[in-house]
Specification:
It comes from Acidocella aromatica. The chain has helices at 27-44, 112-118, 131-144, 167-179, 188-195; strands at residues 4-9, 48-53, 97-101, 123-129, 148-157, 184-186. With 196 residues, the chain is of the alpha/beta class.
């Protein structure tokens, strides 16, 4: 049986604030599913790793994050800001592991792989925000590093990108792509049922 770790990615206030341009529709619903995954892992003694995205206010550590097209944008996810903190409703386990990333992938420039190896993990389960950025990028990188990857689609979320590209459509398309060669895609209910 494989050892699985749950990656709880970027469950931060910036995605829950109604005034935020990154506000995720039905945020409380996806957060509830994320908490169910955390509780299931806690009950089975599976490691839970919480990851937050954060940058220095001056953007020295941001690289191309905020000028990917060549035009600089304001730095967001600023360290110490309310927007970059965990949402108050997130279940934090006393023995959960915590790390900060500065890129979309949870592996880039972090100690994640060393932690996973030290725990004997060969499968990661992914939940959090945003479906098509940090969650998808981490899933693809994990696959390339030869981990098995479970993508818990309904425990991810992302802002709508317009009337045609709603959160539901983005999750559907991202899941279909990942399921065709990178990950196994699950609902929260199915993943918890299989885990337990």
């Amino acid at each position: 049986m494989s050892e699985t770790a749950l990656l709880v990615i970027d469950v931060q206030n910036v995605y829950a604030l109604p005034e935020s341009p990154l506000c995720v529709p039905k945020f409380e619903e996806s957060l509830g599913r994320i908490n169910k995954l955390i509780e299931a892992c806690a009950a089975k003694g599976k490691p839970v790793i919480y990851v937050r995205h954060a940058h220095r206010a001056d953007g020295r550590d941001a690289g191309r994050m905020f000028d990917f097209a060549g035009t600089a944008e304001p730095v967001s996810f600023v360290e110490g800001s309310f927007a970059a903190e965990y949402v108050p409703g997130l279940k934090i386990l006393p023995d959960g592991l915590h790390m900060v990333k500065r890129r979309y992938s949870c592996f880039e420039g972090t100690e994640l792989e060393a932690i996973l190896r030290s725990l004997g993990v060969n499968r990661v389960a992914i939940c959090g925000y945003m479906t098509n950025f940090c969650c998808e990028t981490t899933a693809r990188v994990a696959h390339d590093k030869d981990y098995f990857v479970d993508f818990i689609a309904d425990a991810t979320g992302t802002p709508d990108l317009g009337p045609e590209l709603t959160q539901e459509k983005i999750i559907e398309v991202t899941s279909a792509t990942l399921n065709s060669g990178f990950t196994k895609v699950f609902s929260t209910f199915l993943w918890v049922s299989e885990l337990c």
